[in-house]
Amino acid sequence: MNRYLSTEHDLAVLERGMNIIIRLMHTAPLADIIDHSAVGKCLGHQLPTAQPAEVRTYMRNYLETLYHPTSTARMAPLSDDGVVDARLRVHGVQALRVVDASIFPTIISGHTVRVAIHCPPFRIPVKPLGILGTDV
Questions:
Q1: Are 99 and 129 within one domain?
Q2: Is residue 90 part of a domain?
């Protein structure tokens, strides 16, 4: 169960952000590529003329989290509550490796796909290739 928008502060911060987005969607060059005649409440095109209570209702009805869970099988020594070792082997289980973002030791602040693919030391798609070739 989430507690999104459970305080007045949460609502006020998001409302300020929504007001910035509303101004941006009516500012060139973005305004030139948005179809302002589109209908459908989920798109939010009614928000520039909406009353504050309507904006809050919109936020409550359409807010959702888009996140990429990580760190559920974190790479760390077993003594530090790790699930996999540096060679991606699950502690205590033979012939099982984890090869996805769940091995991140902690949740990162950046986009997990970007880090998982491009950022050493993870580079998750590449790392197992080198390991598997040496662990046969």
A1: yes
A2: yes
